[in-house]
Amino acid sequence: MVMPGMSPEQNPYGRPAPAPEPKPYALAGIALGYFMVLLDMTVLSVAEPDLSHALGGSVAGLQWAVTGYTVAFGALLLSAGAAADRFGAHRLFRGGVAVFGAGSLLCAAAQGLWTLVVLRAVLGAAAAACVPSSMALIARLYPDPARRGRAVAVWAAVSGAALAAGPIAGGLLVGLAGWRAVFLVNVPIAALTLALVSGNAVRCPAAPGRGIDRTGQALACAALALGTDALIALGGRHWAHTAWSFGAAIAAGGLFAHREARSASPVLPTAVLRAPGMASMLLAGAAVGFTLTGVLFVLPLLLQQRLGYSAVGTGLAFLPMTLPTAFNPLLTGRVVARTGPRGPVLAGLCLLAAGGAVMGAAVGTGTPYPLLAAGLAASGFGVSFALPALTTAVVTLAPEGAAGAAGGVFNALRQLGATLGVAVLGAFVTVGPHQGTGRADRGVAGALLVAAAVCAAAALAAARGRSGTRSRPGERNGPRARTVERT
């Protein structure tokens, strides 16, 4: 019973009342929204040839259809956490889901490739609104650490399910109804998500939080978009376009750096970036995004246009890569709990490097599918070892009170890596009737070997970065220091 004048959270004796049991449907809705956002990163991969046939356009247009999403997603993640604090996480999450559903419907109705690219950027902005606000809602719904840990585990497991479902779901949808179906499927998912998170059961009051530097955020978006455009133009050998975009990207980057140095609310939290050992972990996250998204871009083009796979067959061909992401994170979590994140991070990066090398050899030599499947499996286990461990490492290495900001930077750089993966590896793709199958195979093989080299370099940086995570004698004693030392 609550006495007059007391807050509903207090009992008559002034002690906090037990937190109400969160409704299961609330967590289901939050997780479903996260699933939808991540699914859209991979479901389009097997639809690329059908999309190109229906709307026309070059490989560069297909690259933008993918990177339009990741550019907006990654750049806006830098400020999305602050926006969730300022406006209320439940408002930002619901708004993001609603825009995502409406934008998906418009994507399905697009009549031109560049219209689709613009709409994909809208989806990326909506996705950036959903991810940090979903974590804030879970923190609000589950104040008890043990219950929150279980809820976060459910939320995080959704990422593996989305990665596993993306290519096969995309193949089935394209096989049944064409490329537009991969967007239409988002509409009922968004509607169900909004129904599950409506009402007062899912609320997160606005808090002052840190400010939002809109000018700095706009400059960050411009620099990333222009840099991506320069890389895509370089792959197409459009030299004047490359020079213009590269120069504009440098100018936007310079203005961004100038703005950051003088901003009261910088977009990039410098304390996070300067934390010992953090740089190598952020680099590793970008390398994983680079490889995963880049491989999902180039291989479907080869399998369908060069080897004659159907959309469904392409989705099935990716199962050796996607299945480990559905179950292996559970093992990774146990290993990280016992030994710390450093070992799984290095193992994951090494597996990704080996997987890229094996796939490159398989494509370059025309070896049958089993060798390609072995490379895909190694990459799948690499992703499922590296990403959960990297998340733990970044939060552990973050300065006190900056874990949320560190998570935002980490996820933003993962999307930056994904953007670069499509732009750089896509430049190697030369699939086309006028170019010859041999050249097409060599281009895809070269792209896969570049992905392997990027992961190998990230593994070397992570191994050498160990000294940055150790505590000096007499410094940072206690459990947190011991956890950091293990990374």
UniProtKB/TrEMBL annotation:
Instruction: State the residue spans of region: Disordered.
Output: 466-487
- What protein is this chain from? MFS transporter, DHA2 family, methylenomycin A resistance protein
The entry's localization annotation reads:
Cell membrane
Chief location: membrane
Query: How does this chain sit within the bilayer?
Result: Multi-pass membrane protein
The species this protein was found in: Actinacidiphila bryophytorum
Q: Name one GO cellular component term.
A: plasma membrane
A GO MF label: transmembrane transporter activity
What are the TM regions of this chain, as residue ranges?
A: 25-47, 59-80, 92-111, 117-139, 151-173, 179-197, 279-303, 309-331, 343-363, 369-397, 409-431, 443-463
Does the record's keyword annotation contain Transport?
A: yes
Superkingdom of origin organism: Bacteria
